[in-house]
Specification:
The complex is a heterodimer. By secondary structure, chain A is mainly alpha-helical. Chain A has one domain (25-253, 269-543): Cytochrome C Oxidase, Chain A (Up-down Bundle). Chain A is built from 18 helices and two strands. Chain A has a two-stranded antiparallel ribbon. In chain A, helix 5 packs parallel to helix 7. Chain A starts with 11 loop residues before the first helix and ends in a 57-residue tail after the last helix. In chain B, the strands form two sheets. Chain B has a five-stranded mixed beta sheet. Chain B starts with a helix and ends in a 10-residue tail after the last helix. The relative contact order of chain B is 0.14. In chain B, helix 2 packs antiparallel against helix 3 (107-136). Chain B has a domain at 142-296: Sandwich (Immunoglobulin-like), CATH 2.60.40. Chain B is α+β, with helices and mostly antiparallel strands. Chain B has four helices and ten strands, in the order αααββββββββββα. The chains are: A mainly alpha, B alpha+beta. Chains A and B meet through helix 5, strand 1, helix 9, helix 11 and helix 12 of A and helix 1, helix 2, helix 3, strand 7 and strand 9 of B.
Chain lengths: 583, 297
């Protein structure tokens, strides 16, 4: 840890690029992830044109992109300005991959976790600062590989973010790039998760017992275990699929495949379902990797803006641990249609119903925290409050998907897309926005504009519901997901009006982000200056200067009480910070 | 009235979306370039959006879906009312302070238990029996079922019928010829002589249909929304499911699992016919050897 003290003597490169300071790495993560989120969203905005107006040239971009990437690229992928089915599929696969692995997880774990967690526990940095830096740069490299894959022969991976074999094994070269990229991204997450666990266990300030940890830290702690335990199976599976593609093995390839009338010369004996089991064994805990830190963020913001202690702090902690544990027991509910018998499907449906209970407890605790509070409606709080009903919709619509019989009608339809997007987009991404508005003053020493922030929230909230609500109706109508043109089917044709609605919602949502982008960049230079504790908050990060210097605290803080002591009777202020002694 | 401003977007959004269903906002895009075959049934009708149900078992799935959605809406609305009331009642204003003391509330606990019990009922009382019947308990020969092998490939459905003898001939990958023998039926097997392959699914009304589903290349999913039927077609596996049509007409079969660039057009017609029409069709198809015009494939 000796380099903490001399940190500010390093040159530009060591201070801002190859920094070992958790705050710089956190900002690097967050900014890179925000850029990827926007890029992943742009892919979707283009796909939404094809969905709404199939076979019509994309305005502006249909002209521009072929000019940008050359005539050959244009002819194969955008003849006449119309997106080809191959390009549509690769955008779909890359949208999912980018949003999850390059956007949301790096933002809420790598970004917020790295920046806020050490401050909240009163630590000068992470336990392994160099490992932390390595984690970011491995992630960055993974991102570059993913982006480069768009220019591989045949384009980027196009077998969905799920990469089901044998489709993925027989796919074009982009899939190989995807696998290499995934191996890098998973490695990065593993490095990060080990670091988080060790830091939370070892670097807590004096007096910071486990049950005095802010809930955000608990959420990051459980998330790190999920990453640590769930990612290795996918990394292994990714390497196996890579071998199937490049070394002629057949882990996921059965005998006697006949593709386009040609008998394939795979040795055979493998199982396509093995991939699905390995994949979902990661990917279901991954859902909780996306949602738990989001719960952590909004819990901080709701406690702060209701000005009262959290209702059921310990219940929430136990729930989050229970959620983490059970998230390893539900994976095969993604596979009800793979020929599952009654008893196996009943097992996974039961675990799925059980896992809904702690999620409902978390929501209930936050809801009751509002009761008898004194609720301030700043931008961060508006985003955090919208999380609650949006997550509720996402959670409730999980029920018909989690029950095998009703899943028969809804599996692989737009209902599924609506369901998980309600959890992740107006859920997790709104929580991430809430976090940006909340901690921006800590990071920059300046506030973001409340006026622009509220406009951002208002239009985003409307638009995002216009995007995703129709998907439930489409799913009930039987429209399959991942269709390049749904109007070929009578149910798809009947629901095309909703597709158009949803597309316009997506473009409106894109436009609403202009408020955020303008606000974000202008506030760095022009925002109102703040002192260390602009929100009158109680947790330790608000006792450090804004922005905190290298090493974080002038003197190591001592913790005297629970994290959310607001409106304590008999005090002159309505907040009682963790580090202030009784006197 | 900050609170009203707060919930306005939700109301506006919901209303916009709901209304948009009745009348497509910006008009239809390109007309579907599907074949000119008329498809029976009603699709996307307000307010449940569910397609016509022409199967014996579909009702059970629909009932479960209806109960679930009523349950979900009741929970969400009840929850939402309390949420919005809290936001209004406990908004920060001069003279109002937060209460440090935490409420001792039993209600959430009871509610939680009630919800969990209801979920258990839905699972054990409804979902499991339906699943067992629809997916697992195949009709016996006494029920006089029709047997069809469904073989998916990029990007078409092959429906392999046993012909008049009701017995499938042997198949092996080495006999596959994309044009003359897409199924790879062993030419030396006498039981395969009257086998035939169709790109259209023909089934008789009011008889159980047992489909044995597999794929030649990648994973597909055999989906017939009007029959409330869906089953992945997985290479290397044969999975049997059954259904029973209850009404004649022409409907659509879709692929529900991403299977490559033309996944979206992997569509087949399903014709539900009277017993006599069905027999006549089988007779016609079984006449020739397993040879077809290229157009049929």
């Amino acid at each position: 840890m000796s380099d903490h003290d001399q940190g500010h003597h390093h040159g530009f490169l060591r201070t801002y690029v190859f920094s070992t300071d958790h705050k710089v790495i956190g900002v690097q993560y967050a900014v890179t992830a925000l850029v990827f989120l926007f890029f992943g969203f742009c892919l979707m905005m283009m796909m939404r044109w094809q969905l709404a107006y199939p076979g019509h040239a994309i305005p502006v971009l249909g002209d521009l992109l072929p000019k940008l990437f050359g005539k050959d690229w244009g002819e194969t992928n955008m003849a006449g300005g119309v997106m080809s089915p191959d390009l549509y599929n690769s955008f779909g696969a890359m949208h999912g991959t980018i949003m999850i692995f390059l956007g949301v997880v790096p933002l809420i774990v790598g970004g917020f976790g790295n920046y806020v967690m050490p401050l909240q526990i009163g630590a000068p940095d992470m336990s392994f600062p160099k490992l932390n830096m390595a984690s970011y740069w491995v992630y960055f490299t993974g991102g570059v590989v993913m982006l480069a894959s768009f220019f591989a022969p045949g384009g980027a991976a196009s077998s969905g973010w799920t990469s089901y074999a044998p489709l993925s094994v027989t796919a074009t070269q982009g899939q190989t790039w995807w696998l290499v990229g995934m191996v890098l991204l998973i490695t990065s997450s593993l490095l990060g998760s080990v670091n988080f666990i060790v830091t939370i266990l070892h670097l807590r300030a004096k007096g910071m017992t486990m049950f005095r940890l802010p809930f955000f830290v608990w959420a990051q702690f459980v998330t790190s275990f999920l990453l640590l335990l769930a990612f290795p199976p996918l990394e292994a599976a990714g390497v196996l699929q890579l071998m199937d593609r490049v070394a002629g093995t057949s882990f996921f390839m059965p005998q006697g495949l006949v593709v386009s009338g040609v008998v394939q010369d795979y040795a055979g004996g493998g199982s396509p379902l093995l991939w699905q089991h390995l994949f979902w064994f990661l990917a279901h805990p991954e859902v909780y990797v996306l949602i738990l830190p989001a719960f952590g963020i909004i819990t901080e913001i709701i406690a702060n803006n209701t000005r009262k202690p959290l209702w059921g702090y310990r219940t929430m902690v136990y729930s989050v641990i229970f959620l983490g544990f059970t998230s390893f027991l539900v994976w095969a509910h993604h596979m009800f249609m793979t020929g599952m018998g009654t008893s196996i499907s009943a097992f996974f449906a039961t675990t799925t119903m059980i896992i809904s209970i702690p999620s409902v407890i978390l929501l209930t605790c936050l809801l009751i925290t509002l009761y008898r509070g004194s609720i301030r409606f700043n931008t961060a709080m508006l985003f955090a409050l919208s999380f609650l009903p949006m997550f509720a919709i996402g959670g409730l619509t999980g029920l018909p998907l989690g029950l095998p019989a009703s899943d028969i009608a809804l599996h692989d339809t737009y209902y599924v897309i609506g369901h998980f997007h309600y959890v992740v987009a107006p859920g997790t991404i709104f929580a991430a926005f809430a976090g940006v508005y909340f901690w921006f003053p800590k990071v920059t020493g300046r506030r973001m504009s409340e006026k622009l922030g509220k406009l951002h929230w208002f239009f985003s909230f409307i638009a995002i519901n216009v995007v995703f609500m129709p998907m439930f109706f489409q799913g009930l109508a039987g429209v399959s997901r991942r269709l390049y043109d749904q109007t070929l089917y009578s149910w798809g044709d009947a629901m095309q009006g909703w597709t158009i609605t949803s597309s316009w919602g997506a473009w409106a949502l894109g436009a609403a982000q202009i408020f955020f982008i303008v606000n974000f960049f202008s506030s760095i230079k022009l925002g109102k200056r703040v002192t260390e504790n602009p929100w009158d908050a109680t947790t330790l990060e608000w006792s450090a200067p804004s922005p905190p210097p290298h090493g974080n605290f002038a003197s190591v803080p001592t913790v005297h009480r629970e994290p959310y002591e607001y409106s304590v009777p008999g005090m002159s202020t309505d907040f009682f910070p963790q580090n202030v002694s009784e006197a | 009235m900050r609170i009203l401003r707060g919930c306005a977007p939700a109301i506006v959004a919901f209303a916009m979306v709901w209304v948009a269903g009745a009348a497509p906002v910006l008009g239809q895009a390109a007309a579907p370039d599907v074949s000119d075959v008329h498809i029976d049934g009603q699709y996307g009708t307000f307010p449940t959006f569910m397609p016509t149900d022409v199967s014996k078992n579909g009702h059970d799935v629909d009932l479960l879906l209806s109960i679930l959605h009523v349950f979900m809406i009741v929970l969400f609305v009840g929850w939402g009312i309390f949420f919005v009331w809290c936001l209004f009642k406990f908004r920060a204003r001069s003279g109002h302070t937060a209460d440090y003391k935490l409420v001792k509330a039993k209600a959430p606990k009871y509610l939680e238990v009630a919800v969990a019990l209801f979920e258990a009922f839905l699972l054990i009382g409804m979902s499991m029996p339906v699943w067992a019947r629809v997916k697992n308990k195949l009709p016996t020969e006494a029920d006089n079922p029709v047997h069809i092998r469904v073989v998916a490939e990029q990007f078409a459905w092959n429906f392999h019928y046993p012909g008049k003898d009701g017995v499938f001939g042997k198949v092996a990958p080495e006999f596959v010829d994309p044009v003359s023998n897409p199924m790879g039926i062993d030419p030396s097997d006498p039981k395969g002589k009257d086998d035939f392959v169709s790109g259209e699914l023909h089934v008789p009304v009011d008889r159980p249909v047992i489909t044995s589903i597999t794929s030649k290349d990648v994973i597909h999913s055999f989906s017939i929304p009007v029959m409330r039927v869906k089953q992945d077609a997985i290479p290397g596996m044969r999975i049997k499911i059954w259904f029973q049509p209850v009404q004649t007409g022409t409907y659509e079969v879709a692929c529900a699992q991403l299977c490559g660039n033309n996944h979206y057009s992997m569509r087949a017609l399903m014709k539900i016919e009277s017993q006599s029409d069905y027999e006549a069709w089988v007779e016609e198809m079984a006449k020739g050897p397993a040879e077809f015009d290229e157009d049929d494939l």
